[in-house]
Amino acid sequence: MPVSASGSGIGSVVRLDAATGQVQWSVKADVLDSESPAVVGDVVIVLGSGGKGFQAFDLGTGKVRWSVPSATVLRRLVVDGGRAYAVTAGGTVTAVDTGRGAKLWSVAAPESDDGYPMLRAAGGKVYVQGRAQNPDMQFHAFVTSLDGATGRGTDQSPLSGPCETRGLIVAPVAAKRVFLCHRENGSGVLNGDPEKGAAWDIPYGGNALSPLSAAEGKVYFLAASLSGEPAFTELNQESGGSQWRVPLPKVCAEPDRPETANAVVVTDGLAYVRCGAEGRVIDLAEHETVLKFTVPVRPEGPAGFLVAGGVVFAPSESGWASVEPQPL
């Protein structure tokens, strides 16, 4: 049941059949194509451009269910349970009830990163990435936890350095919920444990080539070795090295390509890795590449894609394309 938004300004929201790739419905909408839609129950939620705020469509028909406007542009859509959250460039977080389409609260997170701080939601809380400057002009990073129902601040957990803007994740690692993000220079992972109020740094050799992905207590990402060879790797959460590495095409590490040209989807024990038009499917248990795929490339926009039922869906200039991965 892949659902996607495309276009910047007047674009469209589309639902595709996971088995056939056929369009089930498509509606025109004033949406941001940099934001992925979220499905909660029987509604699809997107963020609109300008002051359109939150918009919800019926999952079955595509008809508008409700909208919650915003005075300023919202980004970083996340959902948890029956609530959706987004944030302004200045760090004000807004929550809405996804069933009623009603605004619950708006709260300015303390000292949040400028330029749409990263949000994550889990366990009834919404987490806001932030950083502040010390008297010695150095930055310290932290994550503020807000109660999802009220917006009240519950605690603030440190990180051992500034995060890359590409991503904060809240991952259940070792049966605990921890914060993970790439270190700002791209050569390490910052961890923060909200229960202990502790932070630690996991360095690794080479450079990160994608955001982090977490599944079943493990952390994955694309990285280049010190010699520049790209690979998909599982992070060793103690040493910072690789538990294992699977080589990837050299296009994944071309220096003139933006990191947003690489994307990873982890599902059903497999990692689907896209670097531009080229894709690989990696078996996470066997640590080997098992399938490959090729997808269209848009001149503009990130390389995000969807996976459902083992089929890869990717946006193209003429709409959405469905691709079945093939043996190597």
Automatic annotation (TrEMBL):
Gene3D superfamilies: YVTN repeat-like/Quinoprotein amine dehydrogenase. Pfam families: PQQ_2. Residues 11-184 form the Pyrrolo-quinoline quinone repeat domain. SMART domains: PQQ. It comes from the Bacteria. PANTHER family: CELL SURFACE PROTEIN, OUTER MEMBRANE PROTEIN ASSEMBLY FACTOR BAMB. This is Pyrrolo-quinoline quinone repeat domain-containing protein. The lineage of its organism: Bacteria, Bacillati, Actinomycetota, Actinomycetes, Kitasatosporales.
